[in-house]
Write a structure and sequence with these properties.
This protein is of the alpha+beta class. It has one helix at 68-88, and strands at 2-14, 21-26, 32-36, 49-55, 58-59, 65-66. The protein is elongated and about 50 Å long.
């Protein structure tokens, strides 16, 4: 029985091809999960957001999808933070 979804951030990819190891960070708990690229139903890229359906609390990697809307929202949020930090830098020595 599928019971919701969970969001993960692709932190890094080590290796190449289907045997590459993909490091995902659970956005809810911060736990790190390692999967093989071949377990995902799409080509992973660092910085991507992945939404995986859950079955009995376990992610179904073969059914996971890229969540481009969440990725765009987070990117926009980070760009806003960067702008605010630049404006708040009194000496102009902050390089972002």
């Amino acid at each position: 029985m599928t019971t919701g979804t969970r969001l993960y951030a692709v932190d890094r990819i080590e290796g190449r091809g289907r045997e590459a190891q993909v490091t995902l960070i659970d956005e809810t708990t911060g736990n790190v999960v390692l999967v093989l690229a071949s377990q995902l139903g799409f080509p992973a890229r660092e910085g991507a957001m992945v939404r995986a359906p859950l079955r009995d609390g376990a992610p179904l990697w073969a059914q996971a999808v890229l969540d481009e809307a969440e990725e765009a929202r987070l990117r926009s949020e980070m760009e806003g933070r960067t702008r605010r930090l630049r404006r708040a830098d009194p000496g102009g020595d902050l390089d972002l």
